[in-house]
Amino acid sequence: MIKAIKGTKDILPDSIGKWKYVENIISSVFKYYNYSEIRTPIFEETLLFARGIGEATDIVGKEMYTFEDRSKTSVTLKPEMTASVVRAFIEHSLGKKHSLNKLYYISPMFRQERPQAGRLREFHQFGAEALGSSSPLLDVEMISMAYDILSGLGLKDLTIKINSLGTPESRKNYTQKLREYLKDKKHLLSGESKERIDKNILRIFDSKIDNDIEVMKDAPLLLDFLDNESKDNFEHVKSLLTSSNIPFEIDASLLRGLDYYTKTTFEIISGKVGSQDALCGGGRYDLLVEQFGGEPTPGTGFAAGIERILIACEKENSFVVPESSINLYIVCLEKMLISKAYELAQSIRRNNICVEMDYIGRSVKAQMREANKLNSEFVLFFGGEEYSEGKVQLKNMKNGTQELVKIENLVNKISGD
Ligand code: AMP
């Protein structure tokens, strides 16, 4: 028996309602903020992610699904979307068409992580990217859209954490200070953190190992080394969040896993989902477009994981999916009329009415049971005495009334015209 690959999940019909409900809220919030949808290929040249996300990150170093295709090109299943959006932005000169591009996506992503609750190898992210403005308004817009979507799903136990990573220069000064701080403490760190001192020193803050946490507790913080521009920017973000009634906390150790961030970064955490508690993360990346060879264009964005959000929704019992239903079930009273019943179903369906009937030779009683199970608004009894006169019995399942209706009037009756 071949099974689905570890860390991947089938989304079966009984949970599709939940997914559609979430996807509807996502697209409607993005619509209110006037974001347009973008779709990019599932795989890209490996170099795009290696360069964009950063060689020293966990995603690039350990987690990418990378393989050589038959023409010996190294390709990678997308582990995140920002690099792809930026590539498309440059490739199609979107910056020339609109001075500000506000884009959103919903897409599967792939990372070869150790599967556990809330951590999959194929998962689904939605997110947004705004390219063309360095205004803190857009940083706040990202946080605000993410918060609106999560609150729209009924989630309450949410914490928004924000930080600023400053400019590359302020980060350089800071990493120097951090290096000095760690000089005589290196022996206390885990092997992985020791390696990070040279490769990507900020990542040591992400370690979950007790000794590392203890060492980093008193480390200098980047927030205290910000340049004036980043400081002003951060103050502006904070005051806009306050005036938009968005609650937040400052977390100076929030550095995010990716290399490309500058200035504002943020995460939204759920208090209900255990160790994989980040529902969403994002930040500003003012140098990424340039780094990819495009015209210098500031950008900001976020990404959120749908599976993790669904776990939080379940834990908080935060929404109920409306029950599914159909408009009409045709109960066929005589087996020899089945083709005629099918013809009728087809013609009614073409009027945007959802019709179901029996395909497996059920008894009339079993067909009635099925109509109830499907929550049908109307049941039509096809056959019987009046059928030869072109009439059928139509039962309204909501109020229980039944009437004789001419077949040609069925569509009007069912659609309530
Ligand atoms: P990141 O791109 O790593 O900042 O992740 C953004 C969001 O995507 C996270 O907050 C999670 O909700 C989700 N996410 C990231 N990695 C995974 C994964 N392996 N499985 C499920 N969700 C994930």
What can be said about this structure in brief?
With 417 residues, the protein is of the alpha+beta class.
Provide keyphrases for this structure.
2 domains, BirA Bifunctional Protein, domain 2, Rossmann fold, binds adenosine monophosphate, eight-stranded mixed beta sheet, 16 strands
Can you lay out the helices and strands and say which pair or pack?
Elements (H helix, E strand, L loop, with lengths): L12 H20 L3 E2 L5 E3 H8 L4 H6 L2 E3 L5 E4 L4 H10 L2 H4 L3 E10 L11 E10 L4 H17 L5 E7 L3 H15 L8 H9 L10 H7 L11 H16 L5 E2 L11 E9 L7 E7 L3 H4 L7 E7 H11 L9 E7 L5 H12 L5 E3 L6 H10 L2 E7 L8 E6 L5 E5 L3 H6 L2
Parallel strand pairs: 1-5, 7-8, 12-13, 12-14
Antiparallel strand pairs: 2-4, 3-4, 5-6, 6-11, 7-9, 9-10, 10-11, 14-15, 15-16
Helix pairs in contact: 1-6, 2-4, 6-10
The structure holds adenosine monophosphate (AMP).
Adenosine monophosphate binds next to strand 6, strand 10, strand 11 and helix 12.
